[in-house]
Amino acid sequence: MHTDVNALFEKLWDNYLSVTPSAVKVHELLGSTQKDDVINDHIALRTFNHEKIGLEKLAAHFLAVGYKECGEYHFEAKKLYAKHYEHSDPKQPKVFISELLVEQCSAELQAIVNDMVEKIDADAVNADNFLYSGTHWQVSSDTYKKLLAESEYAAWMSAWGYRANHFTVSINELAKFDNIESVNQALKDAGFALNTSGGEIKGSPEVLLEQSSTLADDSEVEFSDGKMAVPSCFYEFALRYPKPDGELYTGFVAASADKIFESTNAR
């Protein structure tokens, strides 16, 4: 496992960029001439609640570089469970890890997922590169479509595996923008399609967090029976509001996160 938090995020970022070319354009649009003024609020990762690769196995990589568990979330309709983690240095990004509750899904989906998980080498889960190692299996495009009919989340995992599902621009840290509406407008003016599930803006000042996101890029996947372009990763935008004590809210809002998951839905 990594011992340097910055090295870990650099690898996650490079891997994310490889399937999310629009992220570079987002940086150019929202940043100024300074290289590092687009600050990452959080990343998200996905997995299955299988003992070999469950949420806690992914979290161990972050705990090893100074993170601690801070909140848990339930998404009953999507059959997901999630936790978020924060670093002792508040300048480091927050981490949101979710897992699909496989036993609540159909027997067919369970069989496909178990087959995929079986192909992961037991040692791979603790390797430095596990969080950005992609897939350890290859499924057919038919299998992808079967999963998609039941769970977009499972289908996404079958195509993309282990990588950051999204990075998130902290609007609070932007020099050129101070509200989410102007960020969304700039994105739309530049030709980006936004996730409109639950409205373009999820959340509100009342829940101390407003979020929006682009729709995932379509990137080509080498399935066992040929190549097909499917939704890959996306970019999120978050504006946090101060709590009564004056500190910025650092958690997540389940109702909003539920809609953010839909950024990887097929258009």
From TrEMBL:
Under the heading InterPro entries, the entry gives: HGLS
Please state what the protein is called.
2-oxoadipate dioxygenase/decarboxylase
- The UniProt record lists the EC number as 1.13.11.93
The alphabetized UniProt keywords are: Dioxygenase, Iron, Oxidoreductase
For this protein's source organism, the top of the classification is: Bacteria, Pseudomonadati, Pseudomonadota, Gammaproteobacteria, Alteromonadales
UniProt cross-references to Gene3D superfamilies, sorted A to Z: 3.10.180.50
> What is the species listed in this Swiss-Prot or TrEMBL entry?
Pseudoalteromonas lipolytica
| Signal peptide (UniProt feature, chain positions) | none
Which EC class, in a word?
oxidoreductase
UniProt record similarity statement = Belongs to the 2-oxoadipate dioxygenase/decarboxylase family.
What cofactor(s) does the depicted protein rely on? Fe(2+)
Q: Do you know which Pfam families this protein is assigned to?
A: HGLS
